[in-house]
Amino acid sequence: MRFVWSEVRQGIRRNLSMVISVILVTFISLTFVGTAGLLQMQIGQMKNYWYDKAEVAIYLCSNVSPADVCPQGEASADLKTAVENQLKSPTLAPFIQRYYFEDHAAAYQKFQQEFAGNSVAKYVTAEQLNETYWVKLKDPSQSAIITESFTGFAGVEEVRDQRSYLDQIFGILNAASIAAISVAALMLASAALLISTTIRLSAFARRRELGIMRLVGASNFYIQLPFILEGVFAAIIGSLLASGAVVGIVQFFVQGYLAQQLPFTNFVDLGSALLLVPALIGSGVILAAAASGLAIRRYLRI
Amino acid sequence: MIRIENVSKNYRGSNRPALADVSLEIEKGDFVFLVGASGSGKSSLLRLILREEIPSSGAVHVLGENLVGIPSRRIPFFRRKLGVVFQDFRLLPNKTVGQNVAFSMEVIGQSAGLIEAAVPEVLRLVGLDGKADRLPSELSGGEQQRVALARAIVNKPAILLADEPTGNLDPKTSEEIMALLDSINQTGTTVVMATHDSGIVNRYRKRVIELREGQIVRDEKSAGY
User: Fold this and answer.
1) What is the pLDDT of residues A198-230, one digit of tens each?
2) Are B200 and B164 in contact (CB under 8 A)?
3) Please, what are the domains in chain B?
4) Chain A residues 174-233 within an 8 A CB cutoff of chain B
5) Distance CA B154, CA B101 (A)
6) Cβ-Cβ contacts under 8 Å, A214 against chain B
7) Which domains does chain A have, with CATH numbers?
8) Is residue B160 packed enough to be buried (19+ CB in 10 Å), middle (13-18) or exposed (0-12)?
9) ipTM of the assembly?
């Protein structure tokens, strides 16, 4: 083992600049991988939080609703009863956790609160705002049941799952994490190529030793080990740097800045960032071991 | 110990076989000179025994191993039972004499204690007492070949293969190396030596196998060149 380590040290000294470039490339690529992981965690966390709160809104016709969906104008008391009966019916009731009715006055009050200070609040009247049945489902993903039952129902202008608004936000975050993954994949590919080039150079510089090692009967594993360790050593340093960067992003940017700016959003914390660390180091090590193992293989043909 | 049966070896790109239907047997403790012109197949034969090549046809058995069918992961362990020296010494230029010899013990995983004990002993055996810390470039050709010999025998191989070990040396130094090979043979190691040196062959009167164009044309005991 003493011999193996001295070979590794020599190899690293011999092509230090290549080893440094391997470290940098693995560092950057794994930082992208880590960032993508953080985004996915953030999406998961927000989904858990918001999807549970999301409700389905059944907007009833008001006197400003378009005539093609609401030919009868403002929904009458009879129509509201019909909607409510449908919600209580044995087909729908098992899926519904609770529902409540929001009349013009309540909708107006909520609107004034949400748009306080905005000039639109001055022009809106209570009658222009839809009366709404808010439905909370037992399983929020089954909103299609409500949508199907009430779309085209007399006196209903529109059925809207709040999750569809959230889905847009998640779509954007998802696209960002896919972009990060794609960059990471490219960078990882170049890291793998760089590692195998480095190892090939290293093996070429030591081809005399390799020849003699084979001649005196060194096992393949023993011949390979210093080269694989050389690649793995560089990758471990790179992935440690990447882990540091990911933890730093969470600590200083997400918790230190974003969380202060947007206090009502639940952001990923240090704990989840630390969960990523072993994954990053593990993938760095596996990548390097595979790349250098394949690169050295062709020098081992007996 | 070494049994070669009806072996032919064709290299790609050459229509003349390097070896054509060669059969021979070498017993434990034998000393064999392989003689013949350049390209007669001496080196090919040594490479087959070392399992650096496999024959195009025929069988090679060395130390109880069938070298045609041996799985590649067993080859390193097979080679540990063989020692090899070459005309061009093949030492590592950036390692000292001691490190060069130790290298062949290190790569097969011998313990540091054993290496420390064995290296000075084998250097004394080949007459390089006190030169363990020199670099190969500081040594004469004869001394470099002694280092190569020390490296070849430090793991106590059953067979020593020598491919023109005196080819680069003057007659006096050649004689010294040959004396060393002979004394190694006296301890029971089988030695197979390919050579062009008629003087040495004639003086030592060992078994001589002569190759011509890939075929054995002579195999005599106590013979001359």
Assistant:
1) 888 888 888 888 888 888 888 888 888 888 888
2) no
3) 1-81+157-225 (3.40.50.300), 92-156 (no CATH)
4) 208-209, 211-220, 222-223
5) 7
6) 76, 79
7) 2-50+167-297 (no CATH), 55-161 (3.30.70.3040)
8) buried
9) 0.81
